[in-house]
Amino acid sequence: MRADRSVYRAGERARLEAVVVDVDGKRITGRDVQVKLVRKETSRAAVQENGSWQYKYDTVDVEVGSCALVSADAPVNCELVVDKAGSYDIRALITDPKGHKSLSKHPFYVYGEDAVVWQQDQHRVDMVPDKRTYEPGDKATVLVRSPFDKARGLVVIAREGIVSHYPIEVKGGAATLEVPIDEAQIPNVRASVLLVRGRVDVPGAPPGQDLGRPAFAVGQVDLKIEATRKKIALEVLPEKQEVAPKDTLKLKIKAKDAAGAPQKAAVAVMVVDEGVLSLMGFQTPDPLAFFHHDRDPGVSLYDMRQFLLAKKDPEPPPSPAPAPEEAPTDGLLNGDTGLGMRGAGKGGGGAGYFGGAPAADKAMAMPAPTAPMAAVVEEHKEAEASNGPMKKAKRQVAQTATLDATAAMSQPISLRSLFATTAYFNAEVAIDASGEATVEIPMPENLTSFRVMAVAVDPDQADRFGSGEANVKVRKPIMLRPSLPRFANFGDKFEASVMVDNQTSEPQAILVGTRGSNVVISGEPTVGVEIPAGESREVRFPMAVDRVGTMRVQFAALSNGGRDATELALPVHYPATRQAFADYGVTDASIARTLKVPEDALPAFGGLELSMSSTALTGLEDAVDFLVGYRYECTEQLASRLLPIFVLGPVLEQFPIASVSDLAKRQALGAEGSRGCSRGRTGTAASATGTIRPAARRT
């Protein structure tokens, strides 16, 4: 159920549209719908509750109109006249064949000359726009629901500063604003109202309770403006929805403006693995929403009336002063003539914390401060013959599907090894005045879904943006999807799992095999499986690590319907931390050293290395090479790199070390570093006292 607006003027007709649907959202026809128009009449009175005085509201529902509808495939409608200002509900009631009732409500508001009491906070102005969103050129009607029967105030229209402002007068508790909507205000503009009311008499308020003292109320509402005029409609049209590995994907991109005409655009195109994007929760970028986000009004409303004190009744005349001999000894600090510690009464109140006559402590009802507006993978059991001999596997699959070895072997096969998460990125695709561009994308060999994302900007009007996306799958009739560990340690044993997919329309007998380098396959290297059309099966191969380094494993599948092969590599690490030992000394005669091999050392790793030199500088080669090849060039690091090389200059001439033993190389390195340090200096420098003086330049 919906109405054409949420705010009406008294005397207008409210138009209602309704449909009847079941729990699945399917429309039901021929069902009777009883529609009632209900006005909420609210009254208020001052009452005392929990020791404080406040307003109590009572609301009564009054039926002021009705109509009967019969549901159809299209929305059915009726019109109801709203004759008085106030809050309304349209209530639609239906009854199903079993007697179950269903009720829907749609609230709206009416303004006019009648006085209205709204059930709301006394310090808040409720503002109700007549629409959820607006288009540039519209005129928004905003209902101002005032907590005061009569009030004056200020209207401020703001968007990153004041757009306009003007006075307003409220009578009968309601008023309306007319706000012109401009394209420059996309995506929002804020309307704010500050109302003030002078002192009034409140019926039922007891003496001493200043419930009608001067008060204020504020309210604000953001008017949302559609950014459709700023949107570039971008279509991403792949030539095919499925491509083979290494095929070229032809992509057409079309751009249109808000009116549907061809649009020039500068486009960035990305093709990324959908699985990775899903793990990240990544959505295609929407530059329109990013750049045309809600703007702050840049204006705040404040009012000092919240600090007004309540009016107090006249105090009774003071009692006669005591005789001099009866006067309290601390009269200079308290009493009628002394200054007490409280801020009420004569001269500070004469009722401090050190004695004296206490002053009357009247309750004050202070206005409250304004509140801000505010690939599931199904695990299969391992087939009993998964590790059996190849002949046995062939006999098993031959029961319902046969493998024509001659036809299968005649098919071309290539090893898939080109895997890429980001298959393509181009930030400079240009769409000309025709509104179209074509891109050719070489696809990788991942057997997965890729999301093609395009993000556009108008090169002539930089506030217009758009985006679009499409999905493309890289597929083969028979596909292998291996699942290996990310790494292995020397001595590890594991089962290499591979999912075999039959994407053909018929069941297939498939021969699956594996081989590799730096790997020991402990079972049969080939397995036969039968896979129904459109289904998958898992095949496992027991494996063990051969040596430290890189393990490469290949899988292949062969069938009448197609073939596939792929290769994966994983690192094999040392199983423990590598430890090194060294012995240094100086001698001028023959010496002997005894070396004891650690008992737990792995026999396949480690060794003995001997190096001898006539100088203790032999071990500095790595350190000097690190300094020379250091790639960061901020001033501090340049200086730290050059200083030790210059200090070692005389030593390097006598004992050649690394690449800077040559004097010419050291001088070239020093000149380059000095120029880098000079470039990093500014023309002035600040002293500790904050004064500025020219900086000395030294090289």
Question: How would you explain this protein's 3D organization?
Answer:
The chain has five domains: 1-117, Immunoglobulin-like, CATH 2.60.40; 120-226, Macroglobulin (MG2) domain (Immunoglobulin-like, Sandwich); 229-293 and 392-474, S-adenosyl-L-methionine-dependent methyltransferases; 477-573, Immunoglobulins (Immunoglobulin-like), CATH 2.60.40.10; 619-684. The chain is mostly beta strands. The chain contains eight helices and 35 strands. The model is unreliable at 324-400 and 684-699 (pLDDT under 50). The strands form nine sheets. It has a five-stranded mixed beta sheet, with no helix packed on it. Strands 10-16-15-12-13 form a five-stranded mixed beta sheet, with no helix packed on it. A five-stranded mixed beta sheet has the order 18-24-23-20-21. It holds the Pfam family A2M. Residues 311-331, 673-699 are annotated as: Disordered. This is Alpha-2-macroglobulin bait region domain-containing protein. One of its GO terms (molecular function) is endopeptidase inhibitor activity. Residues 316-325 have a biased composition (Pro residues).
Q: Which terms would index this structure?
A:
699 residues; mainly beta; Immunoglobulin-like; S-adenosyl-L-methionine-dependent methyltransferases; five-stranded mixed β-sheet; 8 helices; 10% helix
CATH hierarchy class name of the largest domain: Mainly Beta
Low-confidence stretches: 324-400, 684-699
Determine the oligomeric state from the structure: single chain
Radius of gyration: 43 Å
Biased composition (Pro residues): 316-325
InterPro entries: A2M_N_BRD (IPR011625), Bact_A2M_MG6 (IPR041462), Macroglobln_a2 (IPR001599), YfhM-like (IPR051802)
GO molecular function, one term: endopeptidase inhibitor activity
Region (Disordered): 311-331, 673-699
